[in-house]
Amino acid sequence: MSTADNNSTDNPVPAWARRTAGEARWAATAAIIGILVVQYFLPEQFTAGPRWLVPAIGLVLLVVLVIGSPVRLDREEMRLRRFSLLLMGLLGFSMLWSVGQLVRGLINGSVSNNAAGLLTSGGAIWLTNVLVFALWYWEFDRGGPAARAHARKPYPDFLWVQMQNPDLTDPEWEPQFPDYLYLSFTNATAFSPTDVMPMSRWAKTLMMTQSAVSLLTVSLVIARAVNVLK
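Given the sequence above, the corresponding structure tokens read:
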């Protein structure tokens, strides 16, 4: 059946469950650039190597991905998928390294006694946590954005409110990066699922990991800042 037939008003299949044109890449690209900028401006005690290293490597990988699929994320090529996973791994490693260095510094007392600086660095690392996990959810849900555009996997890894209430949802709705950003933000602040339920085991594990990282970061940074401010 053609895409045009799928889009007809007689077809009850929602957009998230059928083949579509593919998601525009601008939102996810903006998030990646934001992470690289934050990494560059973090103090070097929280970065893996020189502070320019991760942003430089990440920018090269991002340029390759933009060249390979400049407008919409609908190209299913193993080469692009590998570059995308490599970039996600790099961003994840740099985020976890920053969290580890922050926690170690708070425990051994090597982090600056400047409360404003501590809160700024801690907030930047927490923001990176939100953006990185949003990208991970977005990259792995039903095989990634390109696989979702081609409706390769019928069963979702995340159960969205729109999927549970099709009568109240635009039939052209499908999850895109802003939806995964919302999922990541609420999980990092509530430390648990809110209105988006993880369905697969990897999704549950990833959400549990993010909640643990966020709780550890927020609690230690606030406790140290309060102690510094007396």
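The first strand starts at residue 23 and ends at 24. Try to locate this feature in the token string yourself.
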